[in-house]
Amino acid sequence: MPAVAMSPAAGAHGEMCGMMAIAAALEAKGERAQRKTVLAPESAHGTNPATAAALGFTVKPIPANERGRVDLAALKAALGPDVAAIMLTNPNTCGLFEGEIVEISKAVHAAGAYFYCDGANFNAIVGRVRPGDLGIDCMHINLHKTLSTPHGGGGPGAGPVVLSAALAPYAPYPWIVKDGEKWRVAEDGAKVEGTPLGRLKAFHGQMGMFTRALAYIMSHGADGLKQVAEDAVLNANYVMAALKDVMSPAFEGPCMHEALFDDSFLKDTGVSTLDFAKAMIDEGYHPMTMYFPLVVHGAMLIEPTESVAKEDLDQFIGALRSLTARAKTGTAAEAFKAAPLYAPRRRLDETLAARKPILRWKPSNNPPETDPLKQAAE
Ligand SMILES: Cc1ncc(COP(=O)(O)O)c(C=O)c1O
């Protein structure tokens, strides 16, 4: 990809950067007022439609087919002179590869629209597929998952935003420009061959994370990064294969880097996805992503990544199999609802916590809870 922007501060901010470049390109062609629609598959991460809406676009959802992929016929029917772009994640948030991606990009371009690809799941394809070859105009490659930033655990999923030749002229400042034999950093207002969309953030982005990602890339090398993709996909499929007889996979067939289950295996047990996840805390595991993607009922999205050894996966699978067996006895719902028992906090009122956050710790805010072990003994 001919241009790379490193200033966006997070995944959603990277989406904003890409969609602003698309808006600028449309403006330059005199089509901004006419092309107001952004297409987003039903399984899209919430930040995709939110970004489009924040920029004044109208979001049109594209349904998934029974295989969990974009319904190509529905997409083609939605394309028209009002469409500015599609925002697609590949692999998608169901952990499935959009195999018709080249056809999707051709159809989008034929309709005069741009192709934004959310690169948050890049760890399944790193080293194996080049976004430019797929016809992508813009991709935000979150450092999370792929390049050593833990998903949701280590800071924002910032990362480089890569732009195709069609969008490169609108890349935000700062630019690194070659004048003769010398390089210069072009800041706001400086002369460059294009019309940058302005600055997105002070300084040069999440430098600490970029430095860590660079170290990760250099220590792996090109062959190692390819293995990252292979191991992430292998690990997810190992989990899927080891659990599919007791849990309920959301879709048939192999997955990419995420094994997705729905809650039908918990039917009539009185145990919900939330209860199951809370019980995992007592087994010593941070629960998987729950209730996302929204297109899958009671979703449980297990994403082991490349960095977990087989022994650890086996232990994890064992814990989940035993929880599943307990849930299916039909008499364990109350115990599940009481979990977690062995964590410093039990169930939190998450709505209250979000609406009225208590941001300073005071002993009076946090009365010690009854010791659950003592309680259990009583
Ligand atoms: C598919 C996808 N898109 C976008 C984002 C947004 O990234 P951020 O949370 O850094 O804004 C995420 C975050 O998890 C994601 O998984």
Instruction: Supply the helix-strand structural class.
Output: alpha/beta
**Main sheet: strands, sense, barrel:** 7 strands, mixed
N→C terminal distance: 64 Å
Q: Rough shape? A: globular
Poorly predicted residue ranges: none
Bound molecules: pyridoxal-5'-phosphate
The tally of helices reads 10
Q: What is the number of beta strands?
A: 13
Q: What percent of the residues sit in helical stretches (DSSP H or I)?
A: 25-40%
CATH architecture call of the largest domain: 3-Layer(aba) Sandwich
Strand content: 5-15%
Q: Mean of residue pLDDT? A: 93
Gyration radius from CA atoms, angstroms: 23 Å
The level-1 CATH class of the largest domain: Alpha Beta
Number of domains: 2
CATH topology of the largest domain: Aspartate Aminotransferase, domain 2
CATH homologous superfamily title of the largest domain = Type I PLP-dependent aspartate aminotransferase-like (Major domain)
